[in-house]
Structures are given as structure tokens and as C-alpha cells.
Amino acid sequence: MKLTIHGAARQVTGSMHLLEVGQYKILIDCGLDYEKDRSVQSNENFPFNPGEIDVVVLTHAHIDHSGNLPTLLRLGFNGQILCTPPTADLTELLLLDSVSIFMRKAQTKGKYGKGRGKFNTNSQPLYLQKHVMDTVERFVTIGFNRPFKVNGDIELTFIPVGHLLGAAAAVFKVNDHGIEKSIAFTGDIGRKNYPVLNDPEVLPPVDYLVSESTYGGRFHSKGKSVEETLVEVIEKCCIKEQGRMIIPAFSIGRTQSLVFALNKIFSSGLLPPVKVFVDSPMASMATGIFRKYHSLVNQEAQDFYKNSGDEFEFDNLTYVENLKDSRQVSNYFEPCIIISSAGMLEGGRIQDHLFYNIQNYYCTILFIGYCAKGTLGHRLLRGDSIVHIKDRDLAVYATIKQTDVLSAHGDHEDLMNTVKQQDKALLKSVFLVHGETESMQALADSLDFEGYKTVIPEKGISYEI
């Protein structure tokens, strides 16, 4: 049995791991690599022949895990894609959105071409809607905790890990020339007590573990709950100052958890009513998928539904559908909360709301997620006094705040606990992926101290296991 880490090696994006059992080749995740030093087109350069991959196993829908699947098919992959049912639906939504993003970037204006509507040859779409639909046809869905025979020698089980609806660790039991072996790929690990999502489940004992390390060396804030944190900020911004709050939030996962938290706050009377706008068509569609798989949300959300109704609907909540209504939100002058995508401010309707509110002294911009270096969100968080939005330099008068209470990634302690569920005497190696080098090293140091053998693999290096 051979393991090769082809993506998310000493970086966060582009998860892609190849497991070979004899001549049978399994690709675990096939994410877009969008590190800042690489072009989108570089994702076409697979380090193997896509046509030789027998099956793909997808841990969850996020683009850094699923976003290069259509390219894989376009270049020759002809097998099945195994995932949980919610992952299949959410991945379709995200891949179609990727096509829209590719097309917007490929359309040129002014300096990129002779006129509007011309293609920028340096930014051709990586794939089109047709390729996405071809990909969707390859999905074969498997429920949680239901062993699935991939072939006569390989069994796959999806174990819930929180993080996102449908997200799973992929656990393999392998008959390798008469020797029983096991390996688990964590995907991304969630947090305990997170709104809407279930806690990560304990992984079964395995011989090898491929673990994410995004928050290695970092710890989430302790003490205040999600609701307590939100009440404090909303009370100051919207109640006392009679202003507006803008919350950049990813449409899938983060927005649904935030809406549920706000629902609990207002329905319990912790704050007087405040108008809430969810300005993201994708968030509306994703919320429909959350409703479709309501049996997979956590017990708190299910109990709320039984006692109080839909956790994603409440008085004064409006899902903004079209662009005309989105622009009308800027003309709403009463105190309000605007939730819009994208979370790092690099696109989407959130830029319109920032453009009209960044110079508003009575506006608070609350970040509830990570912002990568180089993004507009990162520039605001580091305290830039002037930012460039929609071809204009604007002074920042709005209040900028950040909280990690809605981060969907487990922190250093959560990652350590995931590994420590394994018997160190039986676990042969922990391969750390999906993290910056310093995060991986911090997690490796802690695991080494506990007596676990860790490996921080380089991209493309194969390991006989």
C-alpha cells in the first residue's frame, strides 16, 4: 500500500491524496490549489494520469477539497466519486459557483481586451457548467457509519467530523496481499458545540492517520458563547448606537450557523428586534439543502425546530434574492444586520455593502472567519486606514471587529484530541496536511511530545505503508 500527498502539503489549499493498493488507485479529495503564487490554470497539471484513477473519495464540499473534480473528469477520469448525500448537493452548488467566478474573471474590460465581453486568454475558465454536471453524474452517495465495499480488498466508512453538513473522515480497511491494514483521512475537523452541526465523532483505531492541521498551534477564544458574543456586539452597534452591522460570511455553513444563533437570540428576547438581511443567493440555496438533510443537524437545532419552528426563519429576517433588492438594502436606514458573502471580501455582494458603508461612523464590520493575507478582509483587520474598493480609495471610518466563536475548524486542542483517541502503541504514523508549515510543526511538536510518530510530508513524496 502506498500513500502520496499530492496537495495541501505544507499549505492549506488543494487537498489531494493518492492511496494505492496494488494496482488500484484511490484519490482522496481533489481540491483547487489557490495559493497566491499559483495560477488557476496550474490546477490542470495533475502529477498523475487522471484516467488511471479508479475512484475518488470526497470528504466534504469545500472548494479546496472538491473544486478540481471537473478538471479531473475533463482530463480523463472515468470513475465514481464517493461522498455523503449532503456533500454531493453542496458540492454541486459550490462547483457551479466556481464556474461563475471563472467566467467573470475571463470576461475582460478595457486593458484586457478591445471591449467588454472579450475573453482574457490568460484567464480561461478551468471548466464549464457542462463539466460540473458531468461530475455530478459520477456521485455515489454513502450514509455515515455504513461500511461500503469499494472492491474485494477495500472497505470505506464515512465518520462524521462536524465542520460542514455532510463532512466526513474517510476510514479505509484494506486487505493488502493478505495483511489487514487501516488508514483514516480526517478531511477538516469541526468543533464541539457548534451551532447546527454535530460534534465530531471518535474515529476507530487505525494504523495510519492523515490529519488536517489548519489550527495547529492556535487556540480558539474561551469563555463567551456564540450568543453572548453576538449579543454584546449587536447591542452596542444596533441598539445603543442605532447603526448597522455588516457580517461577511461564507454562504455555505457559516451563514446557516449564524442565522440559527441570531434566531435563538431574538426569539428568546435577549435583544429587541433588529432587521436582518441575508444577501446571498447561494446562502438561500444552501439553507434549502440544510433543510433537506435536517435529520443530520445537531440535537439542539432539531429540538428548536420541534418547539419553535424553522431555525433558519424568524421575524425581521429577509433573504435577499435579486440584485435590485440587494441595492435597496443600502437605502434601509434603520438599524440592521447585513450578512453577505464572501467571507474574505474578495467578491460577491459584500463589496457593494462595504463600498457604501466603509465611511459610515455608525457601521460595524464583524469578521467571523479567517482572512488570508492579501485579501481586503486581511487589510481591514490589520488596521489599514484607506482601502481600495471598486476602483476607489476609501477611508475606513467604520468600526472593524473580529471573533472566532463561529470558526468551523477545530483548534490545536481539538486536533490533538482527535489524534489522542488513537492508541500510540498501535498508530504507526500521523501524516500532517492542510496547514501552514508553522501550524503543522506546532502540532507535530505536541504530538511528538505525547509519543506519536509524525510526518510532515513534502508534495509528491510517496510512502510505503
Provide the helix percentage: 25-40%
- The strand order across the widest sheet is 8-5-4-3-2-1-24
Number of helices: 13
Q: Ranges with pLDDT <50 over ≥5 residues? A: 109-121
Largest sheet: 7 strands, mixed
Please report the distance between the alpha carbons of the first and last residues. 6 Å
Radius of gyration: 22 Å
Content of β-strand: 15-25%
Average residue-wise pLDDT = 93
What structural category do the secondary elements indicate? alpha/beta
Instruction: Please provide the count of β strands.
Output: 24
What multimeric state do the chains show? single chain
How would you summarize what this structure contains?
With 465 residues, the chain is an alpha/beta fold. The chain contains 13 helices and 24 strands.
Question: Tags for this entry?
Answer:
alpha/beta; seven-stranded mixed β-sheet
Task: Characterise this structure.
This protein has 465 residues and is of the alpha/beta class. It is 29% helix and 23% strand. The chain has 13 helices and 24 strands. The strands form five sheets. Strands 8-5-4-3-2-1-24 form a seven-stranded mixed sheet. It has a seven-stranded mixed sheet with strand order 9-10-11-12-13-22-23, covered by helices on one side. Helix 5 packs across helix 6. It is globular and about 70 Å long.
